[in-house]
Design a protein that fits this description.
Blueprint: H1 14-24, E1 29-31, E2 36-42, E3 47-55, E4 60-67, H2 76-87, E5 94-98, E6 103-111, H3 120-145, H4 151-158
Antiparallel strand pairs: 1-2, 2-3, 3-4, 4-6, 5-6
């Protein structure tokens, strides 16, 4: 999955940059007030819900990428163990389990206080990274939740690299 690059002038509101990026990629979105934007993106494994929230009081742009992978109560402990193993491998953002919704999300926050607004390229990279990591680790989460595998086995099974062509 690749994003179309955007060119923008300097913009004070990071959500305007996000909206432009989403529009350029023909993704549906909804602006929920001045400080939130939600979009949906189809991936190989799931439909991803992108949520951007500008937090003026914290000087930050919070980004979450949720996917429809509900976690049954009996598998929460094993999934939390898997999330720890996966997060050790990430260089940007982290996975989290929203316990009330039993939903798995990738999250990252860009700190903006006392600095310039983020560039279009910075936002593109956050979105690209989130979608890439969600796609990469989705099978491991599936193995742990529905396959009944332990965290380490789920991760090892999902990280098999394919070589050559059939």
């Amino acid at each position: 999955m690749s994003l179309r690059r955007i060119e923008t002038d300097v913009v004070d509101d990071p959500l305007d940059i996000v909206e432009h990026l989403i529009t350029e990629n023909d993704w549906p979105f909804e602006r929920q007030g001045d400080d939130e934007l939600v979009s949906g993106v189809a991936g190989q494994w799931s439909e991803y819900q992108l949520w951007f929230s500008r937090r003026i009081e914290h000087g930050a742009l919070q980004f979450s990428c949720a996917f429809d992978l509900r976690v049954p109560e009996p598998r929460k402990r094993e999934l939390n163990s898997l999330i720890v193993l996966v997060n050790e491998r990430l260089w940007l953002g982290h996975f989290d389990l929203w316990h009330d919704e039993r939903m798995l999300v990738f999250r990252h926050t860009l700190l903006l206080r006392d600095g310039p607004a983020p560039t279009a390229r910075q936002i593109e990279q956050v979105v690209e990274t989130a979608l890439s990591e969600c796609e990469r680790y989705y099978p491991a989460f599936q193995f742990a939740i529905w396959g009944g595998k332990e965290a380490r086995d789920a991760l090892d099974s999902a990280m098999i690299e394919t070589m050559g062509e059939a």
